[in-house]
Amino acid sequence: MNSQRVVILTGVAGFIGFHLARFLLARGDRVIGIDNVNDYYDVTLKEARLAQLRRSKAFTFYQRDLADIAAISTALKPHQDVTHIVHLAAQAGVRHSLAAPARYVASNVQGHVTMLECARVMPGLQNFVYASSSSVYGLNTDLPFRETDAVNRPSSVYAATKRADELISEAYAHLYGFPQTGLRFFTVYGPWGRPDMAYYRFAQAILSGTPVQLYEAEGLARDFTFIDDIISGVVAAMDHPGEPGAARIFNLGGDQPTPIRDMVALLAECLGKPAHISLSPLPKTDVLSTWASLDHVSEVLGWRPKTSLKDGLGIFATWFEEYHESDGAFRKTQ
Ligand SMILES: NC(=O)c1ccc[n+]([C@@H]2O[C@H](COP(=O)([O-])OP(=O)(O)OC[C@H]3O[C@@H](n4cnc5c(N)ncnc54)[C@H](O)[C@@H]3O)[C@@H](O)[C@H]2O)c1
User: What percent of the chain has pLDDT over 90?
Assistant: First the structure.
């Protein structure tokens, strides 16, 4: 019997999708990647990630939009041997969802239904894993956040789309029975990261000597999670499906809630340059503080993060210096 895993991976040109694809290809899985390579942030960075993945013969890529269910079904028709789906594509970023809410609904809600519709007719599918977000905890203030907490108070349309995905998955698990796992990622950072995220923008500002824009809010903190820890968590979820009909949800966090100012100080230390702080009010889309309870995921999957924020930021800073111009723009090297 052929035991090779064949994985459909959406969002493969993105930060987390790229790292996961690299890991899966290195261990011998086949990866069928999907991404619309949109211009929400620097497309050169997405193309540079894809260029690395294309070096593997076990990688197939479709540039398609998940909102177009017919185009996705047609692309996936020849792939009847799929064993796993990891669905990471989404319009990410909480603040941008204030400006473009419809784009979030199309990519995140219709896109999720598209992948579930494909999944339910795949004969050999063993597991469907998808990205949710810590933002579903919204305006909750009881820390750490637990998977059993009520999550009815999103503070952005982005968060609401992620919660909608979890509920739609619950319905599909009930109706069709294939195992699903939703992963609530907490502020993921690392090399090949996302230029719209704060740590990346802070690095650009520190290196170019321009002001680091911080939000002025007492107690502003994030539970930062290093990319390698996220990948080991996604892989643990993928390789250990729940019972048929189960729609599991796990937090994946770094277990290191850190005031943003302390993170900036650590990053400046790693980059060897001072940070010049400038303050502005906290946008309504942003929550004050996040921290993942890891009790559930460590009990069921035996997963815990391993990378300290200092070590993770050091690895990010080394990559950042190698791949960016002095004004902070991404530089393609190969
Ligand atoms: N990075 C984090 O801190 C974080 C935190 C919580 C949740 N998440 C979730 O994890 C997943 C991956 O995030 P990321 O940080 O890698 O983001 P990313 O933006 O780098 O990757 C997402 C990818 O999805 C693609 N995409 C978007 N809409 C699409 C569509 N309609 N059709 C096809 N492709 C589409 C984009 O082009 C992009 O390459 C997302 O679902 C995101 O919401 C990320």
Answer: 91
